[in-house]
Amino acid sequence: MSSMDIFGYRCKKCGHIHYPNRTLCHKCRHDQFEPTALPKTGRLLTFTHLSALPGDFEVPELALGIVELSGGVRITGQLDIPKPKLGMAVVGEVQVVRRDEYNQYHGMVFKAK
C-alpha cells in the first residue's frame, strides 16, 4: 500500500478546497491557495469501462470512476473493483497507473471499502 497523498488546494481566504488547482477560487475569487492532503475514502458517483486503449497501456481495458471524497471534493480515478455499484463506499490509494519508456504516472486507484 502506498503512503503517497493526492493534494487538493485550500483557498487561504474562504477555505474552499479545489481539485485540481485553480488560478482563482470559484467561491470567492481569491488567488492564494495552500496544499492540503485529500481524504482517501468516499462514495462512487458514476463509472465507465474503457476497452479501446492506446497501445502504450499495459492492460487491455480499465474502469474509471468519479468519486465524491469525504468532505465533498470529487476526483476521477481508476477502479479496481470487479462489479462497481453506484453509491458504494470506496477507498483510494496512489499507485502507478501508467508507464512509458522512461516515466511512471501516478494516480488514485479506488477499491471497495
How do the strands and helices of this protein lay out in sequence?
Elements: E1 7-11, E2 17-18, E3 33-37, E4 41-50, E5 62-69, E6 74-79, E7 89-99, E8 104-112
Parallel strand pairs: 6-8
Antiparallel strand pairs: 1-2, 1-3, 4-5, 4-7, 5-6, 7-8
Would you give an account of this structure?
With 113 residues, the protein is mainly beta. It is globular. The model has no long low-confidence stretch (mean pLDDT 91). The chain has no helices and eight strands. The strands form two sheets. It has a five-stranded mixed barrel. The protein has a three-stranded antiparallel beta sheet with strand order 2-1-3, with no helix packed on it. The chain folds into two domains: 1-38; 39-113, OB fold (Dihydrolipoamide Acetyltransferase, E2P). The protein has strands at 7-11, 17-18, 33-37, 41-50, 62-69, 74-79, 89-99, 104-112.
- Total DSSP E strands: 8
Q: Give the C-alpha Rg.
A: 15 Å
SSE string, helices as H and strands as E: EEEEEEEE
**CATH fold-level assignment of the largest domain:** OB fold (Dihydrolipoamide Acetyltransferase, E2P)
Give the N-to-C terminal Cα separation: 14 Å
Overall pLDDT level:
91
Looking at the chains present, what oligomeric state does this protein adopt? single chain
Q: Could you say what the CATH architecture of the largest domain is?
A: Beta Barrel
Number of helices: 0
Classify the beta-strand content into a percent band.
over 45%
